[in-house]
Amino acid sequence: MSTRRPPVKPADPRVHRLEVLRSERVSPSFQRVTVVGDDLHEFGDMGFDQWFRLFLQLPGSESLRLPRAATSLWYAQYLAIPEAERPHCANYTVREFRPAKSAASAGAGAGAGADAAASAGASRAELDIDFVLHRGESGELEGGAAIWASTARPGDALGLLDQGVLFNAPDDATQIYLVADETGLPGTEGIVRSLPRASVGSVIQEVPTRADVRPLDAPDGVEVTWVVRDELDPGAFAGDADGAGSGAAVGAGVAPGEGALAALLSRSAADPRAYAYVVGESALATGGRRHLHAAGLPKNRITFSGYWKR
């Protein structure tokens, strides 16, 4: 028997060549880039935590070169691109996909000028990508994708290869447990929006600041707990003299993922017929899985993924 829930693959994965429509700061820790493309209307929207390979043109390169294959051959084709022209590649989650509207429905009731232009834009499919803005000790922005997102301008080129959905709850799941740090927030949004409205369970969502908290379209039976990292006491997470605990340095802030993991660890039991999804910093994903299994949840009812490692 598998000890891990299998991901759900897209029926018709494609490599999409896209361009930036707009980029905006939506909260202190998130930059949202909205993209469009000639064939984006053919994107197979699966909801939940649908993820993709993101390809970004390198500064100084003349054009964006993309792999052609949407199968496992894509990586060999990607590596075959000369290094000086090979795009930056990273994994991201769909924050929201909005299908194209027909020209007739988009134009209905629209006036001239700006309203007409907005209506025309609505006739194209749009996809939102949220980028977490990680910063170093001196406050500088880190990560090629986050830097790109913060400086993205309309018309900038990018590529996308659909990879499907990690979230895969069994049909007989009695409850849904979601645990994530900020890198998992777009997935959390998509999952709770896609859940049947009769679903029950809980969400533990960590974000860096109170201003990063946002409304979630969760079913009434799903309890949402926000963990705001800069409001936590770092002393509660520091290791003791023997090196136990998180190992956070005295005087340092709480590390990403620690708050969400602590909130999960405070729950001593898990319904063995539930389904859990734990994503974010590596220690959160592995520690959350370990705790949930020890609390009674079978391993094959847990999806976990370390998006990054501190």
What does this structure look like?
- With 310 residues, this protein is an alpha/beta fold.
- 19% of the residues lie in helices and 27% in strands.
- The chain has helices at 74-80, 103-107, 114-121, 144-151, 185-194, 258-265, 282-294; strands spanning 15-27, 30-36, 51-56, 88-93, 96-98, 126-132, 157-164, 176-180, 200-207, 221-228, 275-281, 302-308.
- Strands 4-3-7-1-2-6-5 form a seven-stranded antiparallel sheet. A five-stranded parallel sheet has the order 10-9-8-11-12, with helices on both faces.
- Helix 6 packs parallel to helix 7.
- It starts with 14 loop residues before the first strand and ends with a strand.
- Mean pLDDT is 89; it is low at 116-121 and 240-251.
Q: How many distinct beta strands?
A: 12
The residue ranges in which pLDDT falls below 50 over 5 or more consecutive positions are 116-121, 240-251
Mean pLDDT: 89
Distance between the termini: 32 Å
Helicity, as a percent range? 10-25%
Oligomer: single chain
What is the alpha-carbon Rg in Å?
21 Å
Shape descriptor reads globular
Strand order of the largest sheet: 4-3-7-1-2-6-5
Portion in beta strands: 25-35%
Compressed to H and E, one letter per element, the order equals EEEHEEHHEHEEHEEHEHE
Q: Could you outline the blueprint of secondary structure elements for this entry?
A:
Blueprint: E1 15-27, E2 30-36, E3 51-56, H1 74-80, E4 88-93, E5 96-98, H2 103-107, H3 114-121, E6 126-132, H4 144-151, E7 157-164, E8 176-180, H5 185-194, E9 200-207, E10 221-228, H6 258-265, E11 275-281, H7 282-294, E12 302-308
Parallel strand pairs: 8-9, 8-11, 9-10, 11-12
Antiparallel strand pairs: 1-2, 1-7, 2-6, 3-4, 3-7, 5-6
Helix pairs in contact: 6-7
